[in-house]
Specification:
TIM Barrel, eight-stranded parallel beta barrel, alpha/beta, 213 residues, 9 helices
Amino acid sequence: MNAIDLASYIDYTLLRPGCLREEIYRLCETAVQKNYAAVCVPPYYVSDARTVTEKSRVKVATVVGFPHGMHLTETKRAETLLALQMGAQEIDMVINLAAYFSGEESYVRAEIRHLAQLTHESAALLKVILETALLTPEQVKELSLWCAEEGADFVKTSTGFAAKGAELEIVRLIRQTLPPHVQVKASGGIRTPEQAWDFIQAGATRIGTSTAL
């Protein structure tokens, strides 16, 4: 595998607090030059990212309920609608672990289902971020199944804001748990091509990274 092969897996990401518009422009220009799969930018910069990428194959992703996921579903719905209106083509939504740990399965499932429907109505994709650093393997399996059953397009490991990011064994577990049509995004702490390929071999079809691999 070479750099061209790897490029099609990369979600080139800049979500650092206080990032500047000129940094977003550079991120998007690099993504277009390298033919990455997507850029992932803060909601504030979605329209800027679309301006740079609109004549390329690079998709624009943004985050919802970021980084902790404890927003009300109504808030996440409003965030998603605004992002889609500004041109987002992929939504990376942080799951509500507060609701999950409180035993509120119906709330967690309904939130995934509603946002999946909303994104699909705009021909966009929904990635659900589990924040696997906070979960046991059994919890990862359970939430991955809920994501698949409620219509998510991807299960994503991490926000990059927890104590640790993606782990190979967890990516393998997610891939083994999900049906074939639901994809896996590994993110958090992936900084080299060698690491990226390890995660791809473990089952990831997207790699979230802030490093231009």
